[in-house]
Design brief:
InterPro entries: Dimeric_a/b-barrel, DUF1330. Pfam families: DUF1330. By secondary structure, the chain is an alpha+beta fold. It has a single domain, classed as Alpha-Beta Plaits, CATH 3.30.70. Helix content is 42%, strand content 26%. A 4-stranded antiparallel β-sheet has the order 2-3-1-4. It is globular, with a radius of gyration of 14 Å. The model has no long low-confidence stretch (mean pLDDT 92).
Length: 121
Amino acid sequence: MAVDPRGADLKRLLAEDSGGPVVMLNLLRFAEGGDEAYREYARHLSETFLPRYGGEVLYAGTGSTVLVAEEGQSWDAVIVVRYPDRAAFSRMVADPDYQEVTRLRTEALTEAVLQATTPWT
């Protein structure tokens, strides 16, 4: 199962750009002990890469009581991050410094959903 966006995914993200900010929904399932590696990744993200590309964590939390979901649809963590635009997100994931750190995320996860959202008008 893929946990990181690929080149084709980023091209589609940019092609579907309606302009303006984008909020990225992250649903995360950790490997055994992966929460520690993910927290290290998140520290690098917050201290270096989000400021560099204008991103901001709007919410980060641990999954809790599942009220409505099919078996296997619960998540260990939910993170919501706002970027000034889709191009900023794409530039960040292409940054060679980021690519060195993203291995922590990859190693930490067994499954993930990373979905761009657009605001309702």
